[in-house]
Amino acid sequence: MRKLFIILTLIFSSNSKSDSITKHCYIVPSDEENLYGVLEKQTYAGLPNYESVENGDIPETVTVIRLNDPMCFMFPERNYETIHIKSVQVVDVNKIINTVENQKIKVSGRLFEAETGHHHTEVLIEVTNASKTL
After folding, report:
1. Residue 132 CB contacts under 8 Å (≥ 6 apart), including other chains
2. 16-46: pLDDT as tens digits
3. Mean pLDDT for the chain?
4. Which of 15, 9, 29 is nearest to 1 (CA)?
5. What does the pLDDT look like over 63-75, one tens digit per residue?
6. Which residues pair with 87 in a beta bridge?
7. Is 35 in a helix, a strand, or coil?
8. Which of 23, 28, 53, 70 has the fewest CB neighbours in a 10 Å radius?
9. pTM for the structure as a whole
10. What pLDDT, on the 0 to 100 scale, is given for residue 125?
11. CA distance 119 to 109
């Protein structure tokens, strides 16, 4: 039933980008999803203004998973808005990921929407499991 709802929503959605990019739309927030890609470190502007490291904001380096392909994410709480993104910030509070940067990886966890200035991608994943892939 959930898949049928997602498919119908994508067909009738006027604010999604090209549906040919992906066949599946992840629901945000979610309980448990799997993402596939490459781990990377990215630096963003932090305190005090979250605008520019060059203008004095403290750099914040975070781990992201650069997805193998742009993926569709749907937000029921935003009137089922859909976006297609290539990177998802990784929240690994339990230190599950022991993979080095630039490794292909499968990350499992709960997807959620950015809520604070420390969240630097529109979607984040709270890791519950991770494994290297070929």
Report:
1. 99, 103, 104, 105, 106
2. 444 444 368 999 999 999 999 999 999 999 9
3. 84
4. 9
5. 999 999 999 999 9
6. 66
7. strand
8. 23
9. 0.77
10. 97
11. 16
Over the Cα atoms of the chain, what is R_g?
Answer: 16
Q: Which two tokens stand for residue 106?
A: 């499968």
Are residues 116 and 134 in contact, defined by beta-carbon separation less than 8 angstroms?
no
Q: What is the three-class DSSP state of 82? A: strand
Nearest to 127 by CA among 105, 94, 87: 94
Average confidence (pLDDT) over 37-66? 92
CA angle 39, 40, 44 (to 5 degrees): 140
pLDDT of residue 100: 67
CB 99 within 8 A of CB 105: yes
User: Do residues 25 and 110 lie in contact, with contact meaning Cβ atoms separated by under 8 Å?
Assistant: no
Estimate to the nearest angstrom the gap between the alpha carbon of 86 and the chain centroid. Answer: 8
Length of the chain: 134
Which of 6 and 33 is assigned the larger pLDDT? 33
Residue in this structure with the two tokens 């898949």, named with its chain if needed: 3
> Distance between CA atoms of 58 and 62, rounded to whole angstroms?
13
Strand 81-91 versus strand 123-132 pairing type: parallel
Does 28 or 1 have the greater pLDDT score? 28
